[in-house]
Amino acid sequence: MPDLVDIGMGRTARRAYGFDDVHIVPSRRTRSSREISTAWQIDAYRFEIPLVTHPTDAIVSPAMAVRIGQLGGLGVLNAEGLWARHACVDKLLVQLASVVGEAGETAAVRLLQQWHAAPIRPELLTEAIGQMAQAGVTVAARVSPQHARDLAPGLVAAGVEILVVQGTIVSAQHVSRDCEPLNLVEFIASLDVPVIAGGVGDYRTALHLMRTGAAGVIVGHGAGASTSTGEVLGIGVPMATAVADAAAARRDYLDETGGRYVHVIADGGMRTSGDIAKAIACGADAVMLGEPLAAAAEAPGNGCYWTAAAAHPSLPRSQVTKVPESAIGIDTLLFGPSSDPRGTVNLFGALRRAMAKTGYSELKEFQKVGLTIRS
User: Fold this and answer.
1) Which residue has the higher pLDDT, 198 or 222?
2) pLDDT tens for residues 249-307?
3) Whole-model pTM above 0.85?
């Protein structure tokens, strides 16, 4: 039963937990880290590490998506971002980094809004996706629910193999008087590629999204130091509880369908390798990382990070922030070696070590590890 607490006369709230509130409990068995597999598979696509990139221009260019794919993860290009609208994105991003340093975050957000007011150019999207496809990696792109119906056919035709339908909050049922809302059941059924949808923050919405036919459900909304969704909308998702709830929905949907498994992807609340391990331990199949990857030397943001919500024309919900440390090679960031004791480098080497220290050899087994709550 949910842990409800009184917050006033006649009003209760559910007690929920973030990754900082939980800890992984060692078991009676340990293993050699050489015997650990961090591989996972969604539909027909196998990945050696449970990494999906947050679809922001700050960390995912076509070249970065290729490199992430070569390293065993899934790079997701924002199909409504700068690479879809402008031909010389690298120059724009150098300008953005300069504006952050000279005029501040508000001026940088204003610049992103201006650049995103330009129309999406299909030929630029086709070129970017073609660059990813030619490298032989799995090609993934993100669209918003508002533009999914219009953009998806062209993306699939260009070579997208996994489509990500992502917004701050995505539901299976959207009510609107202004236009016909996206029917996810019909939309997903019309495509020949798997669809990952989200974000969600509770059991019921996760279960509803699973029933649309989605291959994966994103839990959270990329919360981090740069996001301001809580300040702007008052919406927050304590990620340990949200992931555990979505994992429960996955289990119930598996029983309901007689065996259809939907992947849970945690997005937000992860700053360190320990947070990644906790996300898997709470029930996630993979993690969607944004801000932790902005320190990579190959990240196109030039030491800056923001989410797609920063460019919203009337209600931005992300700042453009400087990354404290940058110019770390993406190979080192993911796999080490590391001289940083804070868990910000060798992210997936640390996950492998956490699994070894608790005696689990595969990700699905590690989802059963014991947890404690900080008192």
Assistant:
1) 198
2) 999 999 999 999 999 999 999 999 999 999 999 999 999 999 999 999 999 999 999 99
3) yes
Residue type, 339: S
- Cβ contacts of residue 97 below 8 Å, gap of 6+? 301, 302, 303, 304
Is 257 in a helix, a strand, or coil?
helix
| Whether residue 173 has pLDDT greater than 60 | no
Please identify which residue in the block is written with the tokens 């119930």. 252
Average pLDDT of the chain is: 92
**pLDDT (0 to 100) of residue 175:** 45
pLDDT score of 102 more than 80: yes
Q: Sign of the CA dihedral 244, 245, 250, 252?
A: positive
Nearest to 271 by CA among 229, 312, 324: 324
Nearest to 186 by CA among 152, 216, 161, 155: 152
Q: Quick one: fold of 34-373?
A: TIM Barrel (3.20.20)
Domain limits of the chain? 34-373
Tokens of 192: 């020949």
CB 357 within 8 A of CB 25: no
Residue with tokens 């929905």: 249
Unique residue bearing structure tokens 């050699």: 32
- Say which residue the tokens 């400087």 belong to: 322
Residues contacting 44, CB < 8 A, separation 6+: none
Pinpoint the alpha helices (H) of the chain.
Answer: 62-70, 89-103, 105-116, 122-134, 148-158, 184-189, 203-210, 229-233, 239-257, 273-281, 330-335, 347-358, 363-366
Count of residues in the chain: 375
DSSP string, 63-102: HHHHHHHHTTSB-EEETTSGGGT-S-HHHHHHHHHHHHHH
Classify residue 200 by burial, with Cβ atoms within 10 Å: 0-12, 13-18, 19+.
buried
